[in-house]
Amino acid sequence: MASNLKRKRGGEPTPRKSPKLDIEESVAGSDDEGFDEGEDSGSEGEEWGGTGTAMDVDRRGPSSSKPKKAPTGEELRAIREATDLYRSSSFKLQIDALLPNVRPKQSRTVPLEKFLLKLHTFLMQLPSVEPQHPLEAARKLQKKGVAVSYCAPLPTEDTNWKVAFEKPDDITLVGSWPNKVSVKAKDGFQYGVDIAVQMPDGLFQEKDYLNARFFQKKAFYLASLANSMQSTKSGLNVDVFYESTAGDPRLTKLVLVPKPDGSQTDFTKLNARVCIIPSVSPSNPIPLHRLSPAHSNLRVNDGANLPTPVYNNALLTAFSPKPHLLSTYNLIHSIPAFADALTLLRIWANQRGFGEGSKLCVKGFENAGNLWPALLELLINGEDSTTRGAPPRKPLGKGLSSYQLFKSALSCLATQDFSKHPALAKSASKHKYPPSEYQANHTATLVDSSSLVNALSYIPPGCIDMIRHEAAKTIETLQSSALAVDPFTDVFLHDHRDVATRFDIIFKVDLSSAKARKSSLHEALDFGSATNHLLFNMNALLRKALGDRIHAVAFLQPSSTNSLPSTRPLTQAHPSTSSTIFVGLVLDPASAFNLVQLGPAADSTDLEALTAFQELWGSKSEMRRFKDGRIAESVVWDVKTADERAHVPAMVVRHILQWHFGLGEEHVQTWQSAYDSVIRMPKEIATKYIQGAGSSMGFKGAMQAFDRLVKSVKALDDELPLSLVNASPISESLRYTSTFSPVPLTQSLAAALPPNARYLQPINIVFEFEQSGKWPDELKAIQKIKLAFFESIGTGLMKSVEGLKASVVLGSGNITDSNELMDKAYLEIVTPEGWAFHARIWHNREATLLDRILDDNGPNPHVVVSKKRKQQERKGKEYLDALEAKEVYDRRFMHAPRHHRAVAALNHQYAAFSGTCRLVKRWFASHWFLGGHVSEEAVELLCAQFFVLDGKHVGTDVDIPKNTLSVVPSTKERGFAMVMRFLSEWKWEEGGLWVCLYGPKKAEGEEESDGAPAVPKTAPAKASGTGVWTVSTDMDKDGKLWTRKGPDVIVAKRIRAIAGATWNYMQTMEDGTFNVQGMFIHPTRDYDFLVHLNPSVIPRYVHNIAADESLLGKGKFANDRLRKQEQDLVLPGFDPARSLFDDLQRTYADTFRIFFDPYGGDTYGAVWDPTLKESRPFRVLGGYSSVPVKKENEKAKDRGLVALNDSAVLGEIERLGSDLVKSVLKQR
Amino acid sequence: MSPSTSSTTVNGFTALPVSYPSSATHYIYARRHEGSEKPNASTRNRKTTDLPTGRTLFLVNVPPDATERELVLLFKPCGTVEKVVLDFDAHDSQDDDDSDDGGEDEDAEKDGDRAMQEDVPSRKRRKVAKEEVPKVVPLPHAPHRTIRKTGLTAYVVFLDASSLDRVSSLATKTRPWSTSSEEPSGLAHYSAMFRNLRPPLDLIQEHVDTYMELFEYKLAKSKQKSKYRKGEAIVDDDGFTLVTRGGAYGKTLGGGVTVASKRFQRSGETSSRRRRPKEKQEKEGFYAFQRAEKQRSELLNLKKKWEEDKAKVEKLKQSRKFKPY
């Protein structure tokens, strides 16, 4: 209102102007009627209040064309900042929107504060406990139900020191809570509110650092605290638990969880817990110099004083809470973006399992709370000048944005090798211990400015590799511009903890019977817990053995689950450990599948290396002489088939676990072979094929057969009117992506096989002959001439190649043959080895002739055709036929060969591509989508997107950088999981997919400038299709080429639902109930009716996912075979089940939607078109089989309603498929 | 199925119940065929002559796999069926199942070498009377079913008009659908088709040869008819020369008149390369106000984008997209 008044006052001096300006304003704002009155008048008021009216008018002059004002300086600064300091301005806005969601709600902290006050007063008035013998003290507490978590070496009866309790010197709120940088944990875990309770100096002596004496005293102190808090007298009303950081009993703390009672101090709603961490003051009598990583503080009987770095680190932890609090506080206050950056970093880490959670988390990071501030501190303050050769890391500027800090933290994680170069953040005072000591005794080092704790000391080396790998991956995501997913979503919002897409190979290891072959008591004591020690060693050994085969070997375990919580009741002294662990490998495809691992040469003098090698590999290591004359100690992995080669890394892991830890086959579970069996024929049949065809099977055999065929056709040059220029394969059998590896089928082999295993997949190829003007200039005649060509090629081949059979196939045999403009005939060639080819001829004149029919302007563009006639032509048969023919022509002769080449090339670049495609195709098929609804090429594109990424490396011979390769799946299992995840998440309604199969995507502008002329704008109107997926490539910008026919909305939604179910099922890998076969079993409940086929007459039944072996037996009668010898048994591509499916799909396109597994499925499933459920008025071209609805009364007579005659349709199906259909089952 | 006692009519169609072996009843709707009401449609002319009004029955919802023979069997009780026309609207030449006989007349240019060899016989034939055009040897063809889209229409032409009246009597009783054994169905259909589609090679050769012969014959015929001779200008009665594009080297037909390229006719552009946009007369950023305005519009754009982003994020926020877990 005030502004309104102002406006009136200001308006007075210029009464003449105001109406005009008002008009302008209203014109400008007319597009939104109800613009905000208050705001608008406010802004106007300001301007009008100015004295210089002339200037005002001037400023308003140009703006009258635009409704918006120029941004103010303030706004401008914010905008500039957002665009310059962040990835993009929307990225900044997204970050801003994200951050409040992961922080505790301030409104709910009041009860917590009250509770903390209460706790403080309670703790400060605790009575002291007299010094007593540790065991005696423990017994006393035991009676009260509190166990003291003494750690090894345990105190004995003859220990001469005492434990006591006195009220704490000081109680401080530490950790991230007081600094307000708490970040919500995954899986609904609670916020931690850490309280450091400072134990009085008087309780300790100088020598307490020795033999865990400090820890025993601390344990007693904690137990006494727990005891007093637990009693109802305390009035705290909390549940008290023990929890040990990283499962180390030396790092035990108390966890207080409120009991919901609705009192003032009940902070249940905050979803937080209070942790009590015992700490010591810097004035503690224990000398810090005794705690350097190189010092030995555990005296074991064997006398050798080996350093105890982990032990020392654990002791130092007690000193650290307060210094950490202070350093974080300082950073937050000196660097504005620090808190946000820290939050981002922790969200990132949480999403990737580097934190707590009830799903699989990376081992060693569960309680790495102070790792993140330490990392940021390292970046901000820079590195202390160290012994390492390279110059120390420079401090970063203080004005960086949160995003910049976050990104540099990632790049530090990705590039810095913490094991070779200990990272010590620069601190005001000198570091207490030299970096060389860290390097010598810790596997990896990151020390913050307080110079106490090594934040990485608990983390196994393989898991550090893992975080490096993840960081590199994220940086790649942030840098790339052409990804399907929004980078922000991918980096911060997606949960990346699923093992299936993250690791190439996953093992589930049962540790219960693991026993290290070589174990030192000293090391075990240093680690504090036997399991930790075992896992640490196992990880290190695996990492060493796998060497350059992997990017990372990570150990994964849920940090806390319902069955095995991380907290334990006070009666339990030591933490319990889980007996299973998951091992995940991220492979480096360049060397992961090497068969030979070379050790030191025979003549090498380095005996130490030799014994180390032998020690590592055990019985596998042997002296070998290689082809190039070298003699060396080596390990060779035995591999029989190409499939098995993918198992080499798994073999390495199994061997190491067996040799070093006594874990046999039964304790180590993988899923690789189960995946293999999904894309293989049943064993019995496969052996027959191998006997029949020998070594020329598989993709290689198919390619050789193709090359031979091309050669023999080229040899016919003289007999053919035109010579063959090119033969392009367009078959998935020749690009490694057919689900089953191709096999030849000869007459004799066919006789030995049961009739339902005699399918021979023809291989499609395209012949291109030299140009000639002698072709007829008419489409129908061209098709006839093609027949003549086929005839002469066929006759020629049969003459020149003995045993070869060729026949001309006139078409598909169904109603589609009536289109005479379309290319439909092909030459069927069955080579003497039993390979079948379907060859077609590409004649490029066809395109021109078809275009003439389709062209809007007709053949003579200058002749004006009346609109009416044009429309009539549009409907005419010729036009529709031409449309169809053109589509087939484009797909078959233009796009298919190109697609084939690109996919085949991809195969040579990425070993896992073929397997991924085959698995995904199998999945699509077994869920009855492939063929009928989703084309093979579309599936290949879906798979390819995970390999080509942004297309940078497509078609280059340059070695692909390792970073990229680690993002690309290296095994088919991972590829499959990625595709499933994608399918379950893909919002195809919102946008299509762009696959950079032919190189990087061009920028928008570029595309317009040079893309347009290449594709003439007059391209014929595309035949309408129902497909909803858009999968574009550079060659097919519309993205409908392979998805025009389907899947339609219903099917696409179903695919998403089933992929989601599959994806969820994959998650059960974590609890061990996962079964690969289960993902390929199709639920048939949802279908309205099922048509069961007779499996004994389906030639492809052998490919069925759940083929019944008994049905694949020999024919029933012995003389059956004799009779069969006479007739032709090799029928390439003869698949009546598929033909019937195609016929039904076409015939009843408007009646129901039918589904079928093309790979030997024995059931069709279908759902009625829901719109047909209700009766409708009769129409001549209703398009479905109907039954007149009986009139209810005389009045309804005229309406002439009809309804779907479903029983007649089912009867027709039975008749159409007589001998083929076993039964039709109506489910609904 | 118990035979229904009374006939059902829907919109003037009589529903003829037909029982299937699996105890289901299918309904074929029948009506007298009335000739096309619009005689002007030239394409329909043939239709009307083919389908005499008085004795033609129009059927709707014929089973998708029905053959002529089966329909003849069905309507046998009413009288002798002269012919059956299935799926009339789709294609005229669909009467018989063979789609590959290619007896279509079509004219276009053609000079294939194959045809050159056959030039002699075709020329001979040209001389004889019109009826004796070269005959195409049809591709061998064993009967197999064509499965059409469901809800198909058909015409049944009776020999005698009185048969039509008897059709309604069919409606009262459910009659079984008799499948003819000559065209197998089901598995046998598919294996038969597999064989049928692979005829002997020599027959194919014969077929193609005769086809091309006919093609050649027709081509020659149309050439004869057309006034155009190579190298001669076509001058019409008014003395205008017809100028068209053509010839192997872009030469015009009758004379040296150049004709605009196809591209120009379509798009109005003369060459494939795009012309560079003409340089603007006025220099940009020359005057101070231009610079100021430019700067200002840049700022405005910046803000606009910012606001758009903000709105986008706000929208996402509302859909609770920013809850990471």
UniProtKB/TrEMBL annotation, chain A:
It comes from the Eukaryota. The keyword Membrane does not apply. It is found in: Nucleus, Nucleolus. Residues 1012-1023 have a biased composition (Low complexity). GO terms for cellular component: CURI complex; small-subunit processome; UTP-C complex. Residues 1-76, 1006-1029 are annotated as: Disordered. Pfam families: Nrap, Nrap_D2, Nrap_D3, Nrap_D4, Nrap_D5, Nrap_D6. InterPro entries: NOL6/Upt22, Nrap_D1, Nrap_D2, Nrap_D3, Nrap_D4, Nrap_D5, Nrap_D6. Residues 10-23 have a biased composition (Basic and acidic residues). Residues 193-332, 337-494, 501-661, 691-908, 910-1081, 1085-1224 form the Nrap protein domain. Its main location: nucleus. Residues 30-47 have a biased composition (Acidic residues). The keyword rRNA processing applies. GO terms for biological process: rRNA processing; tRNA export from nucleus. Keywords: Nucleus, Ribonucleoprotein, Ribosome biogenesis, RNA-binding, rRNA processing. One of its GO terms (molecular function) is RNA binding. Belongs to the NRAP family. This is U3 small nucleolar RNA-associated protein 22. It comes from Coprinellus micaceus.
From TrEMBL, chain B:
GO terms for cellular component: CURI complex; UTP-C complex. GO terms for molecular function: nucleic acid binding. Residues 10-78 form the Rrp7 RRM-like N-terminal domain. The keyword tRNA processing does not apply. GO terms for biological process: ribosomal small subunit assembly; rRNA processing. Residues 111-122 have a biased composition (Basic and acidic residues). Residues 29-54, 87-132, 263-287 are annotated as: Disordered. InterPro entries: Nucleotide-bd_a/b_plait_sf, RBD_domain_sf, RRM_Rrp7, RRP7, RRP7_C. Residues 197-325 form the Ribosomal RNA-processing protein 7 C-terminal domain. It holds the Pfam family RRP7. Belongs to the RRP7 family. This is RRM domain-containing protein.
